[in-house]
Amino acid sequence: MAPRKRPAPGLPTRKQILDFIQNSPVPAGKREIAREFGLKGQEKIQLKALLKDMAEEGLIDGKRTAFHKMGGLPKVTVLRVVDIDEGEAIAVPDTWQPEDATPPPRIRLIEKGRGSALKKGDRVLSRTEESGSGWRAFPMKKLALRSEQLLGVVEIDKAGKAWLAPVDKRIRNSSAISDLGNAEAGELVLAEPTGRSARASVKVTEVLGEPLAPKAFSLIAIHKHGIPNRFTEETLAEAERVAKMPLSPEKREDLRHLPIVAIDPSDARDHDDAIWAEPDGEGGFNALVAIADVSFYVRPGGDIDREARRRGNSVYFPDRVVPMLPEVLSADVCSLRAGEDRAAMACHLKVDSEGKVTAWRFTRAIVRIHEVIAYEDAQARIDSGEAGADLQNFWACWKALATAREKRDPLELELPERRVKLDEQGRIAEIAIRERLDAHRVVEDFMIAANVAAAKALEAKVAPVVYRVHETPSREKLVALKDYLATFGKNLAMGQVITPGLFNRMLKDIAEESEKALIMEAVLRSQTQAYYGPRNEGHFGLALGSYAHFTSPIRRYADLLVHRALVDAYHLEQPRPHGDIPATSGLSERDRDDLGRVSEAISQAERRAMEAERETIDRYVAAWLSSRVGEVFDTRITGVQKFGFFATIVGLGGDGLVPVSTLGDERFAYDEKAHVLSGEDSGTTYAIGQILRLRLAEANPLTGALKFELESGSGRIEPRGRPLPLKKRGNHLAGKRGRPANIRHQGRRKK
């Protein structure tokens, strides 16, 4: 093979660098690029700046040790087989880092001979190339499997054998531990399988501590769902630098004279929105929604931005928050604190007497928040008649917005939110349903108005928009709802236009509370899941044609993208404040060209966060209830299956199973369409929404699982397995009334 011709001396062009990165037989970092093009001294410094510019422009991505063409792959890399399609192995990069928020490319593995010798899960060192039909790769060497880590608690049985009891309630069996490391009985650990079979033992890789210690439940969720919770030193250093950037009031709209107020939960960790309103003298209002100007500090291409894209959103647990941004930004410089100058994106609104937003404009501003008020305090001032003019103006403007909301007729479902309150030691002080106040509705309607204005403002400039999409229920779900309603003698005509108001009227006409709860559950099940996307499909639940998230850029990456789009569309860019900080605070070219990639990634991150938050609350509820096993509670049935039904404690939450085997000696028939279990002899029925009294039979704080039984006690649940031998014995989370946790593991292996 003829030696490759050396390039001419001097700084290479962007195209030359991209060609070298793509064709290099070894990972191409700054050192390899400098060597390839014969760069020395000052030229290496210029190369560093050029590579940084190329990263900001979306041409390349990677760390200091190796770069790759954006959207491309290294010439040689490790792939993981994820599917076998008609005998051909399909793989993805094994260590794909979603820093650019793109899904991993699916790569065809070209093997010698017929059929695939590879299996799902195999790891292969491969040579990759891009063809007209996509990526393909040629296996070079099969590698050892990368084991999936398991989260559980160490148990020691009577024979002295160690077991890993899973904390995921979907996993029923414990695993034998062959290597305990430094772990002791009762400790929460990470482990990995020692073999490939389902019965392979595991070895402990990391000890996380005591499972019922304060903050353990959120730690379980973080590890289980792979939520990034540590910032790199580079990201923290960049955050400290950008936090010191001057605001330059002369280049911003100065709104410090306005008595802008932030109304937030009493336990809020950050404050990214605040409001103001006053009568306009014509029966309407001039209103302002001020939002933290995160885009000024977090710019495309920087370390903070890459980490924020990877996280997608902040994750909130009762005992901690895993923020999207480093604390110096999320809890300090970007947070709209009272009495301090802050950078804000201001949404100015004109609201007429009927609550219609007739005009809007967006500016970059400097604000000084007059006061931060808890929802409860704001409501108390209004109710007592002691509210000042500011709050009275907010409420008056809100009543106009509420009038427009009623005409719009968005979906009105009662979705109670559980709130876990901890004491100073991290123990549970109280679990209750968060009260829904008018103060919540005030802020909510101001935020909705600003979100709509942001979407329409971008549409007016034909600019890219990350929409918050909630699609109309699918025909399949509507048919299922129609069949269910028919069991109540109600008809859902499929030929009519389905609107939120249709469901609202249906629920309003039901006088019987138990029946109303049943129908409400069914309507909720018929709804689609909201997501982010660049195509406008409307927001069914809010009855809005255009909707985007604009009001929470501290905790949602989608909002940050909307801010950047507004910066571009309305020429709100500000000069580069420092030479080592990316110049633009608008959209990167990569995002401008394809918002679909990042929208899908942050939608997935949102679902991950919601599941982690819900599971953690379930664990806290189970810990709270673990000292009350045997008590009888008022419950509501939330789901029915042929093997039993699920119920939740009224006013507290926490779903628990009532197995059909405990309902008595008679046989129960399952009506799938009606979601009902019916006793063949007695005619007793169990249906979604039904209220009944049940006895708590089991509460497992580690999995969040509950089990109930009938109050009569017929068919009592006999606890199986052994109580978990906690290292220090006792429920450290249950507060003053806590006793040792009553924990049962179902399906435990026995000697």
From TrEMBL:
Its EC number is 3.1.13.1. It holds the Pfam family RNB. It is found in: Cytoplasm. The keyword Hydrolase applies. Residues 725-739 have a biased composition (Basic residues). Gene3D superfamilies: Nucleic acid-binding proteins (2.40.50.140). SUPFAM superfamilies: Nucleic acid-binding proteins. The keyword DNA-binding does not apply. It catalyses: Exonucleolytic cleavage in the 3'- to 5'-direction to yield nucleoside 5'-phosphates. Signal peptide: none annotated. Residues 714-751 are annotated as: Disordered. Transmembrane segments: none annotated. 3'-5' exoribonuclease that releases 5'-nucleoside monophosphates and is involved in maturation of structured RNAs. This is Ribonuclease R. The lineage of its organism: Bacteria, Pseudomonadati, Pseudomonadota, Alphaproteobacteria, Sphingomonadales. The gene is rnr.
